[in-house]
Write a structure and sequence with these properties.
By secondary structure, the chain is of the alpha+beta class. It is 39% helix and 17% strand. It has a 7-stranded mixed beta sheet. Helix 9 packs antiparallel against helix 14.
């Protein structure tokens, strides 16, 4: 008997649908006519045990117990999934071939592997386990996945990386939460001070952004624009570029802060003749935007549809389970070359499903292959795209239709020409000063024709002007000059889109310049699958709040970050974690090295906390420890929680 273990029931049903009928549905599994049996997990069937199960003394939260580091890690069945674990245990006993069909990502790999380990599958049988990678729940795609099965042993590094992350999160969260809760109690605060290696730095980002906004002092600055005229009477505006000699009157960003300096420039150039000193005419192109990863989809959906990260993940999961889009928790934006053959059928499904995109599909070139099709950039999963399934999209809710539309439009764009333009830039020397202007003229709309039209943006943002034909050495008359007084602007509050962007591009916020370059390729707070949940957790714990589309820290959130030492609320450490976890996947790092370094770091953090003896808890409202402890336990026991 071949036993196929899926990550969740919806995937199990999709797999069973391509196997010979008739099917016999049993409690927790499906028998097929070929003798194959399909069963499933229900998310994680197992969870980390609590510290007191390693030692009863740990039931009391005492600083001297720390760090708590299990010598032999233990998992236990979740209360609400024990029966399904028993089903899998029974089926394993009679299985000749075992197929691992967890989701095609780091956590999906661990989820089934940890069940096989817990149920003590022998090393010999473990070696023969096959790996089924399903990105698309439609029948033809599932059948192809069966044809491409690999040895599960090939995915050991992926599983080890997920296991490392799970145990490291437990160590970090348990020890630091206990440490700062105990110190808070000494300072007179009776609530829980919950610390997580991802949630706390994310909260820190928002708190510091709010502080920067509150502390911001606007300053006036001045810009000068020359209205230049050719012999043929053609006009355009050019902006003054202050020289190094003006630096004493400028800020760090090159803005002139002294009105008298700007006024002097205005008076000197009016009515004077200048010369074109430099001229650039360059043709350029923009390739179609790549298909979506989950984070890229969440960012665009936040901007265009005002959907939160969690809403996007939930709706995308629903579309996936309805077989309308491919696997949603993808961190990849590329597609396998083999998938290109299905393009006409996918385009046909889009045209049938979404009448708003019918004309866009009609204008597509199905034979055109964009750079999205690249096997070298695809690992276990690929970009999120529509499937070949046809349905009446208008029987769905607005969120489902709108999100499908975003995903589908991005796919259709792959079959359109590049957007082509002519970029012009001119430098004019006028009374010893330099003035520049630029423009961008569309030569071929290309893929942009199928996207909602945005306001025209040129590099000269003053009026979106079009530069006339010019040549080097040409004389121009300064007909007029304007002085524009502007105000420096505070940083903008975070939104769902910008907070997700900050989490995926965390290198921008990392202080350590030594790791910033490394992180540009592997950076990220959390994973594609966990970011939405982390943001939602901060809202549920009343650390964050929304004001319109803006996200701000609550007084509780601000007080918590103030109570913690700065390194705990900075992203540097967790950004290094993600880089190291990726190295484990790539066989460039090891579990032992990672965990050893973490234990040493924990000892250092706890030593520093112990030396302080107490922490500042001013501003923290009282919280019921029992109520909060229950919530925290549930999060910590979830290997997906951070």
């Amino acid at each position: 008997m071949r036993l196929i273990i899926a990550e969740k029931p919806s995937l199990g049903r999709a797999i069973a649908d391509v196997l010979p009928r008739p099917h016999k549905r049993q409690d927790g599994y499906i028998e097929t006519a070929s003798g194959d049996v399909v069963t499933w997990c229900i998310g994680h069937l197992l969870e980390q045990v609590e510290p007191e199960q390693y030692d009863p003394a740990f039931k009391q939260w005492r600083f001297e117990h720390l760090p708590i580091v299990p010598q032999q890690w233990q998992l236990q069945p979740r209360k609400n999934t024990r029966s399904q674990l028993s089903v899998i245990r029974k089926l394993l006993k009679t299985a000749d071939v075992i197929v691992h069909a967890g989701d095609p990502d780091r956590e999906g790999q661990l989820l089934v592997d940890e069940v096989l380990d817990y149920l003590k599958l022998s090393p010999t049988r473990r070696k023969s386990v096959r790996r089924l990678l399903v990105n698309d729940l439609n029948g033809p795609a599932v059948k192809k996945a069966f044809d491409r099965m690999q040895s599960n042993s090939d995915f050991v590094p992926l599983s080890v990386s997920a296991l490392t992350r799970s145990r490291a999160d437990w160590l970090y969260g348990i020890n630091l939460t206990r440490a700062y809760t105990v110190l808070g109690k000494k300072a007179g605060y009776g609530g829980l001070l919950s610390v997580g290696r991802v949630q706390t730095p994310v909260l820190g980002l928002v708190v510091r952004r709010d502080e920067d906004i509150a502390d911001f002092q606007p300053k006036p600055y001045f810009e000068v624009f020359a209205l230049l005229v050719t012999d043929q009477g053609e006009c355009f505006k050019a902006k003054w570029q202050p020289s190094e000699a003006c630096q004493p009157w400028m800020d760090d960003e090159g803005r002139v802060l002294d009105r008298r300096l700007a006024e002097n420039v205005v008076s000197r150039i009016q009515g004077k003749e200048g010369t074109v000193s430099k001229l650039e005419n360059k043709t350029g192109k923009e390739s179609p935007p790549l298909p979506y990863s989950l984070s890229a989809l969440q960012i665009d959906a936040a901007k265009q549809l005002r959907m939160s990260a969690k809403e996007v993940l939930d709706v995308c999961q629903k579309l996936y389970e309805q077989k309308l889009v491919t696997y949603p928790r993808s961190d990849c934006r590329y597609l396998p070359v083999e998938h290109f053959r299905e393009a006409p059928e996918v385009l046909g499904a889009i045209r049938s499903n979404d009448e708003k995109l019918a004309s866009a599909v009609d204008g597509a070139l199905p034979d055109r292959k964009s750079k999205a099709w690249n096997d070298s950039k695809v690992s276990a999963h690929h970009g999120i795209i529509p499937t070949t399934r046809r349905t009446d999209l208008y029987k769905m809710g607005d969120r489902e239709r709108n999100l499908y539309g975003l995903i589908a439009r991005q796919y259709v764009a792959q079959f359109y020409p590049d957007h082509r333009f002519l970029a012009r830039k001119v430098s004019v020397t006028l009374e010893g000063g330099q003035f520049t202007a630029s423009s961008r003229e569309v030569q071929e709309e290309g893929w942009k024709a199928i996207f909602p039209r945005k306001p025209s943006v040129s590099e000269d943002k003053e009026d979106g002007q079009r530069l006339p034909e010019l040549h080097r050495g040409q004389a121009l008359l300064c007909k007029d000059a304007d002085l524009a007084e502007k105000q420096t602007q505070p940083p903008r509050p975070f939104t769902d889109a910008t907070l997700l962007s900050a989490m995926t591009g965390i290198a921008r916020y990392v202080k350590d310049t030594g790791i910033r370059k490394v992180l540009k390729e592997t950076d990220g707070l959390g994973t594609e699958a966990t970011r939405a949940g982390i943001i939602e957790l901060l809202f549920n714990r009343k650390y964050l709040t929304r004001q319109g589309k803006n996200i701000h820290a609550t007084e509780t959130g601000k007080a918590l970050i103030k109570a913690l030492p700065e390194p705990v609320s900075r992203p540097d450490m967790t950004a290094r974690w993600e880089a190291s976890l990726n190295q484990i996947v790539e066989k460039k790092g090891s579990y032992q090295t990672f965990m050893s370094e973490l234990e040493q770091h924990l000892v250092q953090l706890l030593r520093e906390a112990g030396h302080s003896g107490t922490i500042n808890v001013q501003g923290l409202p009282p919280v019921s420890p029992n109520r909060f402890k229950k919530k925290t336990r549930r999060r910590k026991n979830s290997p997906r929680a951070s």
